[in-house]
Amino acid sequence: MNSVLVLIIAFAVAIVGYYRYARYIDRKVMMSDPKRTTPANMYMDGVEFMPTSKNVLFGYQFKSIAGAGPIIGPIIAIQWGWAPALLWILLGSFFIGWVQDYSSAMIAMRNEGASLGGLSYRLISPRARLILLSFMYFYLLLIAGAFGNVVVSTATGLKSAPMAWLFLTLAGLLAGQMIYKWKKDIVLTTVVTVLIAMSGIYLGTLAPSDSILGTALANNRVLWAIVALVFCYFAAVLPIWRLALPMNYVASYIVFLGLLFGIIGILLSRPDFTLPAVTDFSIKIGPIWPIMFVTIACGAISGWHSIVSSSGTARQLENEIDARPVGAGVMFVEMILAVFALIIAGTIYASPTEYGAAIAKGPGVVFAAGVAKLLNVLGLPLDLGRSYGSVMMIVLAITIMQLVIRFMRVATSEILGDVSPVFKNLHFGTIVASLLTAALVLTGWWQYLWVLFGGANQLMASLALMLATIWLISEGRATAWIFYPMIFMFVTTVAALLYTSYSLLSKVFSGAVQGEALIGNTLMGVVAVFLVIAALVLAWEGQKAFARFRSLRAGSSVA
Amino acid sequence: MTDEKKKKGGFFHAVKEFVYGAAVHDSARFALKSRANMEHLFILITVGDMLGAPVLPPYYSLNLLPYLVPQIPTWKRRMLREKDLTDALA
Predict the structure, then answer these.
(1) What's the confidence (pLDDT) of residue B59?
(2) Checking CA distances to A437, which of A107, A150, A197, B59 falls within 20 to 30 Å?
(3) Would you state the pLDDT for residue B56?
(4) Which of A283 and A222 is assigned the larger pLDDT?
(5) Whole-angstrom Cα distance, residue B3 to residue A404?
(6) Cα A76 from Cα A413, distance rounded (Å)
(7) Listed residue (A450, A539, A550) closest to A494, CA to CA
(8) Out of B36, B84, B89, closest to residue A47 by CB
(9) Could you tell me the CATH number of the domain that includes residue A29?
């Protein structure tokens, strides 16, 4: 099948989903009202609550949610065949993904901009908030571990990546200095720092890591894990304007240009899918259900989006009718990004054997090879394209990873700060988060880690959908469009986490694994079991809230 | 300006805003939050007794009061609003 046809189908699904389904829900169920005051207008403190143009919020939401998730997931999931992966991306986004993003923003907006923690406190119970925060710590740990693995495998698999990464870091530091300290013009800063980053991509091809460090060090996973975590330590500990924000700023141009030209490359080359449409129901990491449904996370549905929508976007929407383009619209764009990644994985290798050899080195290698091939259509040499693709992959992973380690530090301080003051220490909290991440990165098999990340991420999504359902019940509105997706996601993600933890822990208890694998399997298995228990407790609290609001509605309708 | 020119201008303006949103908006919000943190901390140590914190407003704080009055509702709401990790993730 030709990839352009797949892209057309994806656009068609996005258009129907956005202009028909999302519009119907927005107008008839949520009844968005352009005249209703939003929290951004009500409070307008110029800090968190600020009415912002929907175009700006569109870019902000997209940048906040588009990371390595929509790219890595499809690249791994194609092992079940590109057809089931494509179906899940399209149907998941159509029926569940946009529903979650949009409803999180709307419900937060209708509740004075409350965050998920605040909403769970208000709608479910005080205990629910505490459990949610504990859930989130381990969820963040899995994100850091899964994305850390992507960074390490890309740095070891593509020798041009480290030099490009170094120059991007230097460009970020310089951008921060120029903007915040030297007060230089933003256009000048952008041109200078993006050029520095681009020159790093070029230099990466001339001076690959094995020519500088030697083959042994260049291939050493421990070394690159330490490099990644030291990088994240500084990004988390330094003032955010010094490294994290300006590096994200410079990197955003690299990523967007890469995606834009990549899609143009697909439209010009019109490659056919070379991998099979369907393979086996069950592969090494597990059966198609539930595992494929959590392997492709962000491209279909992701709990991370609900956090961004509720805590960030909802406080900036200047008009209720902007929630659809920002919440639903951006999710459909992310769906297109996931289809782009699926096309890369499905078209650049001549056979499943060639794909198998590439994926063993890491999904970043596959992505970089795909970007190289697509940019080559536009005239860029393959090695330069690979260097470009590798830095895109590292950027997409490390920008989220450093943010997550920063939040893990905040979470440590919040949850354990009263137990001992040492947990409130900036450096201690960051080191604890980094060591736990390192343990996962170095001891866990990356495909299991990705499945666990996907499972936790989408379990987070089902909890967000549960909150939205409870709110809708409290308002006496139709719930089927959220309730059934919530049930499907909850059952699928709990099944995926239980299946994966069983696979991991059974190897531990049977003595089939030793050394690093023993540590990795135990850690991942225990985290997975904890997440399931936390989710089941939250579901129990949630169903009590359902019953409570239903009886309230029944009582008020009788009266 | 013709309708077509207005539409094109509107499209380019939308693209410009999208790029701003994706690349810079986060940094701008962070700068605003940093400034607000410092300002509100200052208000807390000068007129914190408005929230029940035992800070006796010294003479010069009372002098500052007319200048602080416009910000006091925002400051109170932000200080008293319950926050948790999920707020930090914005």
Answers:
(1) 67
(2) A197
(3) 67
(4) A222
(5) 46
(6) 35
(7) A539
(8) B36
(9) 1.20.1740
Q: What are phi and psi of A292, to 5 degrees?
A: -60, -35
Confidence band of B2 (pLDDT split at 50, 70, 90): low
Q: Is the dihedral of CA A156, A72, A378, A350 positive or negative?
A: positive
Name the more confident of A62 and B60: A62
How far is Cα A473 from Cα A459, in angstroms, rounded to an integer?
A: 21
DSSP structure string for A474-495: HHT---HHHHHHHHHHHHHHHH
Residue of A nearest to B37 (CA): A47
Q: What pLDDT is stored for residue A483 in this prediction?
A: 93
pLDDT digits (tens, 9 = 90+) for A380-390: 899 899 889 98
Looking from the CA of A437 toward its CB, the CA atoms found within 13 Å total: 37
CA nearest to A133, candidates A119, A123, A146: A119
Is residue A418 within 8 Å of residue A502, measured between CB atoms? no
Q: Report the alpha-carbon distance of residue A485 to residue A471 in Å, rounded.
A: 16
User: Each residue of A374-412: b (16+ CB within 10 Å) or e?
Assistant: bbbbeebeebbbbbbbbbbbbbbbbbbbbbbbbbbbbbb
**Domain assignment present for A58:** no
CA-nearest residue to A403 within chain B is B89
Under 8 Å between Cβ of A400 and A143: yes
Confidence band of B57 (pLDDT split at 50, 70, 90):
low
* pLDDT score of A305 more than 60: yes
Q: How many structural domains comprise chain A?
A: 1
| Span of A210-214, A419-423, B65-69 with lowest mean pLDDT | A419-423
Nearest to A242 by CA among A180, A186, A195, A166: A180
Q: Are residues A312 and B90, on separate chains, in Cβ contact within 8 Å?
A: yes
Asked if residue A557 is part of any domain, the answer here is no
Please answer whether residues A329 and A26 qualify as being in contact, where contact means their C-beta atoms are separated by less than 8 angstroms: no
- Shortest CA distance to A367 belongs to which of A350, A352, A355, A379? A355
Burial class for A557, CB neighbours closer than 10 Å (0-12, 13-18, 19+): exposed
Hunting for tokens 């200052």 — which residue is that?
A: B42
Q: Which domain holds residue A536?
A: 3-49+67-551
Say if A56 falls within a structural domain.
no
Write the DSSP symbol of residue A290: I
Average pLDDT of the segment spanning B66-84: 90
| For chain B, counts of helices (H) and of strands (E) | 5, 0
Give A308's contacts in chain B (Cβ within 8 Å): 89-90
Q: Is residue A463 part of a domain?
A: yes
What pLDDT, on the 0 to 100 scale, is given for residue B3?
A: 60
Distance, in Å, from the CA atom of A49 to the CA atom of A63, rounded to the nearest integer, reads 19
| Cβ-Cβ contacts under 8 Å, A116 against chain B | 86
For A243, nearest residue in chain B (alpha carbons): B27
